[in-house]
Structure formats: structure tokens, C-alpha cells
Amino acid sequence: MVMPAAARPILLPLVLLLCWVAPSGQEPAPVQLRLAGPRGPAGEGRLEVLYQGRWGTVCDDGFDFHAATVACRQLGYTAAVTWTHSATYGQGEGPIWMDNVRCGGSEGSLAECVHNGWGTSDCHHGEDAGVVCSGQRLPGSPPQATISGHLGEVPGLSLEEVRLKPILARAKLSMPVTEGAVEVKHNGRWRQVCDAGWTRNNSRVVCGMLGFPREKHINTSFYRKLWNMKLKDPNSSLKALSQKNSFWVHKVRCQGTEPHLARCPTQVAPPAPRQQACPHGMHAIVSCLPGPTFQKGTGKGRSKTSPGKVLPVRLRAGTHAGEGRVEVLRHGQWGTVCDKQWDLAAASVVCRQLGYGTAKQALVGAQMGQGLGPIHMSEVRCTGHEQSLGECRFQDAEQSGCRHEADAAVRCHVPHMDFQTQVRLAGGRSPEEGVVEVLVPVQGRLQWGAVCGAQWGLNEAMVVCRQLGLGFASHALQETWYWAGSPDAAQVVMSGVRCAGTELALQQCQRHGPVHCPSGGGRFSAGVTCTAHAPDLVMNARLVQETAYLEDRPLELLYCAHEERCLSRSADHMHWPYGHRRLLRFSSQIHNLGRADFRPKMGRHAWTWHQCHRHFHSIEVFTHYDLLTLNGSKVAEGHKASFCLEDTNCPEGLQRRFACANFGEQGVSVGCWDTYRHDIDCQWIDITDVPPGSYTFQVVVNPKHEVAESDFSNNVMRCRCKYDGQRVWMHGCHTSDAYGADVVNDLERQERLANNLV
């Protein structure tokens, strides 16, 4: 829970007085560390500190790999694999002992690192840091009793990072690098890996760590010739280096299911004291196959699994590529996965199936937001060799009592594409905002330049924020006169940009061939503001289906609705107040499934007052209501302004934070929902002029994309609608991404056949 604004002024002077306590000049306070959180493999969990007899947590502000390395060594492990933020392993309790921790990496204890001071923090437990340490413990270290679950001891020493060193010219020019010699980082130093005993299982693990779903067979004879040539070259230092054991990792033995090379049994040095490492071998060569998203061609990835077991999967609400809530398509409908026994093996199957590498993290507790609809799977058990999640063993979630609070999510290894160096933001007040500047070829050389602001929108801004690793776009700006761009990027080098919103880089979007920007850039250059988290609005389709009915409403009760243009145009020509309008009424319940509150774009000072209804409109058009023929032609329409955007209800454990009473703040909190009842004005479509027949009823939430969301693909809800002139039937209601394409096509085909339209 974010600290109330009223509490902050009390804390700030204390932070200023105790700013940056550096214990290097005095004996650091004795502390103990432990890992806590959900049951998982040994060596990973929420980092907790025992200080003055009380266990507390560490804030993720400023926490980095160096701090994780110090913590893991203090816990008795050889190295850190990674660190986590935002309470990945659940929220802790008690004090937050450390904030803004800064370590060099060589400290013997976390207490020796620079931090704000014990207990001095402006964080909440939603920002608790965690660590993932290597499975191998340092010799003589005591057992870590506070961690549940156990990973078998791995002989040898741990490997921290892996990379491929391209050797052939074509490999050096490709991005991502998919082929080369394997190099691993051990104790801060890069080493080559001997190819003696190297297997495809080893290659599979390396490729997975580098973001690739599969390894490729490679003929190493040409590499052997190059190796031998360099050994004979008197100007090459390879011969001298290769005779040193510190140059090599002697042997790695993976089963192929490990998510990280650090979990494979490893021998860094030969078993005999004076034995030479890799006496007749060379460096191991690996070739990886990138997923479809990262291939230059348009070829689709092929699955070798039997059609009956392939369950399509997708990720939702993730901040970066390769992360999100796991959803599977089963029985024609998308649903979530329960986090019971969710682990890295199952998460890695999902990642590889989607064309990424192995999983960095298997997230539990709906850390990527809660889904809406069915929960399809629970207690998923995978060996790691499966090509589809459907091949793993699992239970139906109905039998396990799971709820969406336990939706599983993943973070996958993705290939390094170097996209981040091809775009930058300039002139903003923070690194998360500014004028968009791109690096593109101009007359045969790479040049930085601005992007024309004409037609710039949220989809384009989303791509920029994702490309920079900054999450989602909160604003897309067509004018940036208040931000000064870089002097070397004043020229407009890109215009007419059109993105679907799913591209990995702005350079992948459609754009003008020759640049055409009549406004000339400058103050009309494109800009963005990025945010780590975003809301995600989804309509409850079932409630619409259950509450739809017809009402013949007298004109004398519709003056205000007519003023707000909630009736069809034919109402303008009626003899008011005599007569009535036929209205298709329904209730709508809009859930925020994202990871940030949904707030109106404008502040209260800019809301529009409507005298007739006597309320403010915080968003002038919040929803569109349409009645369409089966060919897609519109026969009737309606709209709804957000005159009261509030938390009508929240699930157990969450407090309502937005309420419209007394000109209160408007919005929908994370996990909560806003309900517009069927009996309020404009919650309808005027169908007075519509003849009987079969139609498609459609609702679009946030239709103009005025407020940024993490996912716009689920903002449309459709129903099949039958109207006989006196009664209406609504059925088959679903959000646009709730069903698979085959099911939607079948529904539409059946409806067309029934009405002799095909």
C-alpha cells in the first residue's frame, strides 16, 4: 500500500538528516540474512535481514546485481544468478531495514554496503527485494534452514553468465548472435568451455539462457580448422592461453532441462591437481535457433507435438517482451493457470513454446495481474523436455479451489537485439519522458533524428517505451515545445509512423518512404512518457448477457439524455414530450486487471459540468455501444461518458479507494471494478428505428485510447443479439480475446448461415 501523502512530510526531514549512511568508517552492525517466501528451489526468495533482534526486509530501490552478489555470498552461496523486485516472492512483514543499498560487490556482508540507514525508508512491502543465488554452497557454510524446498548439491563451481563469441563473419554481423564459441563468467572472469564431452543438452541450456527456444546441430569441422590454424600462428596468443587452466571450464554436464547453466554439474578445473584442462580439445561451439519474433524472415515456428496435445499459450500484462500472466486456450476459451506447484520447469516450457528461451522466474500470486474468466490448469508438472504446456501433467483447476489471486506468470530469457541503442529520449524531466529520437540510415550513414508528431499515438509510444525497457506508455505527445531535443537530432528522419503496438522496435513499424512532415518537427516532434505499470480494463461479458432487456421510455423522461446525445437522430424530429423511445438496456461491469490504477486523463479542474444531470464528466466518451448487422454495418449506436468512475466493489482484502461522492477522486483501483447499472441514463442503445433481425451487439471500453492500458486487445466485448420486434435475446457474449479464432469464426459462420447471408 502506498504511504498516505499526509505521512510523507513527517518522513522527509528524517531522510535528509540520515541521508547516505556509509558504515565504512565504523564497525558495521552485525546482521544475519535469510530467504523467505513461497516454496521454491533452494537459493532463491525474499531477502530478509535480522537487525536488533527483528527480522525485516530490503527495499528494491537501488538494489542491483552487486548487492545480490554480496547477499548470496553472505548466505553461503558462491554467486548470484539474478535479483528480483516488486515483492516477487511475496510481501514481507515488519520493518523495512534497508533502502537504496549500494554495494561494490566485494563486501563481506550486506551491512558493509552504503544505504540510507537502518529503518530509514520511504518504501512499502510491495517493493521488497529478492535474490536468486546459485545452487552450489560455499565449502563450510552452514545449511540455510529458512528456505523451503531443496535443490540437489551440484558438484563443481557455479557459472554466473553465458555468452556466445561470434567467430565467423556472418555470425558477427547477425543480431541476435546465434552462433559462436561458448564463454562463461566464473568469479568475475570470462572463460572458454572445453568441447570434450560437450553435448546437445549443454547447447540446449546455453541457448535457453540466451533467449532461444532450441539449439541447432552444427558441423564443427570448419571451426576445428580455424582453431588449429590459430594454434600454429606465431602471432596468436591462443596457444599460450589454451595451456593455462584458468582459460578453461573443464567440463559441463547438463540434462537439457536446467533453466540456467549454474544448475548443471560443472568441473572448472580437471580432477587431478596437475592435469591440463582440455589438452586436445577446443572451445565448444553452439548454434541456436531464434523464435519467430526474432527471425529476420517471416517463417513461423513449427511444432513437432501431436495436434491433440498442443495448448496455445499467451502472455498478458507484462511490462517487457517475454513476461506476463500465463493464459492457455482450452476448449476454445482462454483461461489462466493456477500457481500451485508452479516452478521454473513449467515456466520454461511456456517460454520455449512462445519462442523465447528458458524462464528467468516463475511468478506466483498474480504478480502480473489477475485474469478474468476460467482457470484451466493447476498443479502443472513438467519434465522440461515438453514442447507444449499441454504435454505436461496437470489437474483441472475446478478440483483445486484456485482463484485468480493465484494466477501464475513468467519472465523469460529473451535474445539481446540491441534495439535499446537505436532510440533515446531527450529533454524530459526524468529518464522516462522526452522527445523521441531514433537512429536510422540517412544517405548511407546512421544518423540521430526526430520523429514527426503528426498522427503519433499510444500504439507508437508503447513500442518506444518497450524498446527502451521502460514499460508502457502513459502519454503520447504530438507537441513537445516544452522539451528541448538534442542539437544533433534536430532533423526529422521518420514520419507517418504506424505501429500495431506489438513491435519490438520503432524501426519495425510502417512509416513513410521519403520523410513527409509538413509541421517540420521542432515543437511538433513526437514525445512519450513511460511508466513501469499500466491499467487494463476488461468488460464482464456475462453480466451484459444476464441483464439485457427492452424498455419503452417516455420522451418526457429523456430530456437530459437527449441533451447528451444518447438517443438516435430521429428523436430530434419527434413531438416532445409525446411518444417514447425503445431502449436496449443492460448493466456493465468494468474490471481493472492491470497493475496500475485507471485514472481519467484530465484532472478535476478540467472535468466538464453537465447541468441537466448535475454531474461532471471525467472522460467525455468512456464507452461506445454499437448494434451491427452480421456484415458489420452499424444500425444503432450509443455512448457513455464517465460521470462517475469509481470502485463499486473490490475483492476481499482490497479497500475501495475511489468514490464519486462529494466531488471525490475518480478512478478504478487495481483488482477492483466499476459498475454502471442498467437503470441509469445513457446505459442503453436506442433501437427505436431498428427492424427485427439478428445482430451483433458490441461494447468498446476506452474507445479513443485516451488513457493508456497494458492491453487494448480485450477492450471490445461482443454478443449475438436476436430481436423479434418485441423481445431481445443476448447470448454468446465474450471479450474480443476471450475465445480462439476458430471458435469466433464458427460462431459468425453459424449466425450467417442461420440468416441466409452466406
UniProtKB/TrEMBL annotation:
<protein>
    <recommendedName>
        <fullName>Lysyl oxidase homolog 4</fullName>
        <ecNumber>1.4.3.13</ecNumber>
    </recommendedName>
</protein>
<dbReference type="GO" id="GO:0005615">
    <property type="term" value="C:extracellular space"/>
</dbReference>
<dbReference type="InterPro" id="IPR050912">
    <property type="entry name" value="LOX-like_protein"/>
</dbReference>
<dbReference type="GO" id="GO:0005507">
    <property type="term" value="F:copper ion binding"/>
</dbReference>
<keyword id="KW-0560">Oxidoreductase</keyword>
<keyword id="KW-0479">Metal-binding</keyword>
<dbReference type="InterPro" id="IPR036772">
    <property type="entry name" value="SRCR-like_dom_sf"/>
</dbReference>
<dbReference type="GO" id="GO:0030199">
    <property type="term" value="P:collagen fibril organization"/>
</dbReference>
<dbReference type="Pfam" id="PF01186">
    <property type="entry name" value="Lysyl_oxidase"/>
</dbReference>
<dbReference type="InterPro" id="IPR001190">
    <property type="entry name" value="SRCR"/>
</dbReference>
<keyword id="KW-0677">Repeat</keyword>
<dbReference type="GO" id="GO:0016020">
    <property type="term" value="C:membrane"/>
</dbReference>
<keyword id="KW-0964">Secreted</keyword>
<dbReference type="Pfam" id="PF00530">
    <property type="entry name" value="SRCR"/>
</dbReference>
<feature type="signal peptide">
    <location>
        <begin position="1"/>
        <end position="26"/>
    </location>
</feature>
<feature type="disulfide bond">
    <location>
        <begin position="338"/>
        <end position="402"/>
    </location>
</feature>
<feature type="disulfide bond">
    <location>
        <begin position="72"/>
        <end position="133"/>
    </location>
</feature>
<feature type="domain" description="SRCR">
    <location>
        <begin position="33"/>
        <end position="134"/>
    </location>
</feature>
<comment type="function">
    <text>Catalyzes the oxidative deamination of lysine and hydroxylysine residues in collagen and elastin, resulting in the formation of covalent cross-linkages, and the stabilization of collagen and elastin fibers.</text>
</comment>
<feature type="disulfide bond">
    <location>
        <begin position="351"/>
        <end position="412"/>
    </location>
</feature>
<keyword id="KW-0325">Glycoprotein</keyword>
<keyword id="KW-0801">TPQ</keyword>
<feature type="disulfide bond">
    <location>
        <begin position="103"/>
        <end position="113"/>
    </location>
</feature>
<feature type="disulfide bond">
    <location>
        <begin position="382"/>
        <end position="392"/>
    </location>
</feature>
<feature type="domain" description="SRCR">
    <location>
        <begin position="423"/>
        <end position="531"/>
    </location>
</feature>
<comment type="similarity">
    <text>Belongs to the lysyl oxidase family.</text>
</comment>
<feature type="domain" description="SRCR">
    <location>
        <begin position="313"/>
        <end position="413"/>
    </location>
</feature>
<feature type="disulfide bond">
    <location>
        <begin position="59"/>
        <end position="123"/>
    </location>
</feature>
<keyword id="KW-0186">Copper</keyword>
<feature type="disulfide bond">
    <location>
        <begin position="254"/>
        <end position="264"/>
    </location>
</feature>
<feature type="domain" description="SRCR">
    <location>
        <begin position="162"/>
        <end position="289"/>
    </location>
</feature>
<keyword id="KW-0732">Signal</keyword>
<keyword id="KW-0886">LTQ</keyword>
<feature type="disulfide bond">
    <location>
        <begin position="499"/>
        <end position="509"/>
    </location>
</feature>
<dbReference type="InterPro" id="IPR001695">
    <property type="entry name" value="Lysyl_oxidase"/>
</dbReference>
<dbReference type="GO" id="GO:0004720">
    <property type="term" value="F:protein-lysine 6-oxidase activity"/>
</dbReference>
<keyword id="KW-1015">Disulfide bond</keyword>
